[in-house]
Amino acid sequence: MPTLIAVWSQWFRSIYRRLQIWLILSMVLVLLAIMPPSIHAQENNLIGDPGSPAENPAGNPVDGYPVVLDGQVLFRVRQDIPGIASAQERAAIINSRLTRFAGDTSITPETIRVEEQNGLSVVLAGDTILLTVADGDREGNQPRQVLAEKTVQIIQSAVTQYRQARSAEKIVRGIILSVLSTVTLIGLLLLLQRWISRLLIRIRAARQADALDLRIQGMQLLGSDATSYLLSGLVKALRLALILGGLYLYIPFVLSQFPGTRAVGNSIFSDIATRLELLIAGLAGYLPNLAIITIIEMPSIRAIPSGKAFQLSSKRS
């Protein structure tokens, strides 16, 4: 009877711990889903401070200052308004107005239009001025009106994508994908742990049976203990690498499912791709050196005695 109670108690503790984990994960997913993107409001005029780095990424007078919506660069501002605003200030003001308009679902993207006023092409959303296009903003021989119409199309497409990404359907889809990926990750980690444990048990059993001697043409390269130590270390290193790799892919995937953290997730994915490229290039360059080191260290590796030989030598001593 006490044994049965102990089994039931252990089972309930295990279920309780799992429920705690699922509760924490559920709270994180809900917070990610409802987290709004950072919006720094500015006054609707031509004099204002530049936007924050997240809203107004670094630009320069030559390439221009980017106008960004939801992490996507729409176009760049290169021309000043003499005596009123620099190109950097213009880009910051347009960023602020565009972000406010994208978050106001009462105004549809189809209301964005171009009106000619005093030699300027004015882009409006309803009654709100988003930006003005002057002759100095033209590229090459492109007419100012054509540039303004292209800008309208770019803004309409970006705002539509911005709002779709924040729709209830997209949020629910992101939560479902995050839950499925969490379940998949936990399942894979459990299978990995079981597989690694069985493999380590087999390595220990083979070492005890002195069946891990590494020989080439009758010449012993590694004793059973040395081979067991090397294999166990490689298996544990593989387990750690697979766990870290899984988390490294899981975290940005979940972050990329929600508007408030999508930029962070995409940034991590980009960083992963860059690091993998550098790692592959580094390994390719290091392989010749690794081969040389292996050849040089081979006599030292051969000198490692097996467990039984070492014990026998100790007893004779």
Structural summary, described in words:
The chain has a 3-stranded antiparallel beta sheet. Strands 1-2 form a two-stranded antiparallel ribbon. It is built from 7 helices and 7 strands. The chain has helices at 2-34, 87-103, 144-165, 168-208, 224-255, 262-302, 307-316, and strands at 65-69, 72-77, 112-117, 120-125, 128-133, 214-216, 219-222. Helix 5 packs antiparallel against helix 6. The protein is mainly α and 317 residues long. The radius of gyration is 31 Å and the shape is elongated.
Q: Structural class per helix/strand content?
A: mainly alpha
| Overall mean pLDDT | 75
- Counting DSSP E segments of at least 2 residues, the number of strands comes to 7
Spans of at least 5 consecutive residues with low confidence: 32-56, 306-317
Note the total helix count.
Answer: 7
> What's the N-to-C terminus distance?
55 Å
The side-by-side strand order for the widest beta sheet comes to 3-4-5
Order of helices and strands: HEEHEEEHHEEHHH
Give the proportion of residues in helices.
55-70%
